[in-house]
Design a protein that fits this description.
Elements (H helix, E strand, L loop, with lengths): L3 H9 L6 H25 L5 H10 L15 H14 L6 H15 L10 E3 L1 H16 L3 H12 L3 E3 L32 H10 L3 H20 L12 H13 L3 H28 L5 H5 L6
Parallel strand pairs: 1-2
Helix pairs in contact: 1-2, 2-4, 2-5, 4-5, 5-7, 6-7
Length: 296
């Protein structure tokens, strides 16, 4: 992979290294290499994966992840690679489209990190992928068909509403510079575990959240009767929070609630039993013992 432009950029940049500019420069270089690879693949007029592999090796894409100086940026680099490769799915040329799918497949199974990055697919991208698969299936070109179904089976795709995750821009994010002096410091006011515990034990909004969630589920399911195509995501926000609280603090809320409920039921039952007992049963007193016995 040609990273000459990035090396030039780093050598000319004085002062602290700009990681955001480096990331953008790396993405531009990767897109240029992809375009070069796909043009060579197109010239061969062959949609087989074996042909693509030969071009992949010739263009040195086999070393796409080598020489990365910033290991922590590999995840971001992979996300950029998948984002760029998906652009070629919307090309009007069938060979470019096929090559785009092959690039996604090759990069996904070559990830050099432990937690693999999934390929985000919007509704339009997923439909386009299926359309390409159907075309290959109609021409009995099964390499791409097999690759697509293998990736689906392995959970390579993450179906999303938006192409890119929504978040704050870099200029809105606070910069944190860690030093050795700050590593052992803890803040009692900003402790997330303390805040979470307060939420579960003291915050009345939790009850309102559960009630709102329950009402939302009822209304959505009611609307689903009219629109059968609507897919309802089952949510149990309250239960998930309680489960997390139980795991973190080793407290079983469900058992505590059940014990409290049984204790209340038992208390009411005993109260009723005692009332009946005192009202119907004759009480033996000292006077009764002094009375003459009538038994024979």
């Amino acid at each position: 992979m040609d990273l000459t432009s990035i090396d030039d950029f780093k050598s000319k940049k004085p002062g602290p290294f700009n990681i955001y500019r480096y990331d953008a420069q790396l993405a531009i270089a990767f897109q240029a290499d992809c375009e070069d690879l796909l043009q060579k693949f197109k010239q061969l007029q062959n949609c087989s994966f074996a042909t693509f592999v030969e071009v992949w090796k010739q263009t040195c894409f086999i070393s796409v992840f080598e020489g990365q100086q910033y290991i922590l940026m590999l995840q971001t680099f992979l996300e950029n690679c998948f984002f760029i490769a998906k652009k070629f799915l919307f090309s009007t040329d069938p060979y470019i489209q096929t090559g785009g799918v092959y690039i996604l497949y090759a990069l996904y199974y070559k990830q050099p990190i432990k937690e693999w990055v999934k390929i985000r697919l919007t509704r339009a991208e997923a439909d386009k992928m299926v359309e390409i698969v159907e075309v290959h299936k109609s021409f009995n070109s099964l390499d791409l068909v097999f690759i697509y179904h293998k990736m689906r089976k392995d959970g390579a795709f993450q179906y999303c509403a938006l192409v890119q995750p929504v978040g704050l821009e870099a200029r809105f994010l606070r910069r944190y510079d860690l030093s050795n002096e700050e590593l052992q410091r803890t803040s009692s006011t900003n402790d997330p575990l303390r805040k979470f515990k307060e939420l579960m034990e003291e915050d009345p909004d939790l009850v309102q959240l559960e009630e709102t969630d329950e009402e939302y589920q009822k209304l959505v399911n009611k609307y689903k009767v009219k629109n059968e195509k609507l897919f309802v995501f089952p949510t149990q926000i309250g239960q998930e929070l309680k489960r997390a609280y139980s795991n973190v603090f080793n407290i079983d809320l469900e058992d505590d609630e059940e014990r409290a409920r049984l204790k209340e039921v038992k208390s009411r039952a005993m109260s009723n039993m005692n009332a009946t007992y005192r009202g119907e049963k004759a009480v033996l007193t000292a006077a009764s013992l002094e009375a003459p016995s009538t038994s024979k």
